[in-house]
Design brief:
With 259 residues, the chain is an alpha/beta fold. It has helices at residues 2-47, 68-76, 89-97, 162-177, 211-225, 250-258; strands spanning 56-60, 102-110, 114-121, 126-128, 132-134, 140-141, 153-156, 183-188, 194-198, 203-207, 232-236, 244-247. The chain is 40% helix and 23% strand. It holds the Pfam family FtsQ_DivIB_C.
Length: 259
């Protein structure tokens, strides 16, 4: 009889604990449900196409040739620009990177509606094959030649040789500058032969081999020509020694001098 009373007492004592535990579980469930609902509502609001539209562009960088209008036009070519939350930055970056003068683009979003665009432009040091441009690393890009400020050397060569031709110009032009001359154009043809036209109009045929030696030979010859340099049309240096000089007719040379 005492044993039954003892068991009932234990059962009665556990009942409040079970009720408290059940209440705690229900409370936790309600809290989690409220938090989930709040998070869902917030995300739904933020991803809503009518909320937080990206409507402002801030353009930064030391720019000469790329304008905010160029960036706007690049973005306008996209099918759709999303919201602050939904828009993929990589898509925007690829779009701006396609602008001809852009060497590098860095884009980030600024809360709540702004796209910050930082651009680095190519610096054109030469005109390549008449219709493209080269930067100082030999990278070919399609900037508008008509936008260039000042003159650029004209370089020509087969596809894939831009770096080589540029390096030859960088190495060789200072040698001509010692004579107060500059390379106006430098050509590497399909047969791997070099040709140079100087800014005084003289054409140099340099062939495929011994380029530096032949340039040095020209410099020595040029110094010895004195005033006769104005009558020189071309100099063919494709010989082991010496050179062949092509002269303007006397009348043509006089007209060239008067010009």
């Amino acid at each position: 009889m005492l044993m039954n009373v003892f068991d009932e007492s234990r059962a009665v004592s556990r009942s409040p604990l079970i009720k408290n535990h059940a209440s705690g579980v229900v409370f936790l469930f309600v809290v989690l449900l409220l938090i989930s609902s709040l998070v869902y509502s917030t995300l739904s609001w933020m991803w809503d196409e009518q909320r937080l539209p990206l409507s402002k562009i801030v353009l930064q960088g030391d720019l000469q040739y790329v304008s905010s209008l160029d960036v706007q036009r690049a973005f306008a070519q996209l099918d759709h620009i999303g919201t602050f939350m939904s828009q993929d930055i990589n898509v925007l970056q690829s779009s701006v990177q396609a602008i001809p003068w852009v060497a590098h683009a860095s884009i980030r979003k600024q809360w709540p509606d702004t796209i910050k665009v930082f651009l680095t432009e190519y610096r054109a040091v030469a005109i390549w094959n008449g219709n493209a441009l080269l930067d100082g690393y030999g990278t070919v890009f399609n900037g508008d030649i008509g936008q260039l400020n000042g003159e650029r050397v004209k370089l020509y060569g087969p596809q894939g040789t831009s770096q080589e031709v540029l390096n030859v110009w960088k190495r060789t032009n200072p040698k001509f500058q010692l004579l107060n001359l500059n390379i106006s154009s430098l050509l590497l043809n399909d047969r791997r032969a070099w040709q140079i036209i100087l800014d005084n109009g003289i054409r140099l045929e340099l062939g495929k081999e011994s380029l530096d030696e032949r340039v040095a030979r020209f410099i020595s010859l040029y110094k010895n020509l004195g005033n006769k340099t104005e009558q020189v049309s071309y100099i063919d240096l494709r010989y082991d020694t010496g050179a062949a000089i092509g002269w303007f007719p006397e009348q043509e040379a006089q007209e060239s001098k008067n010009d």
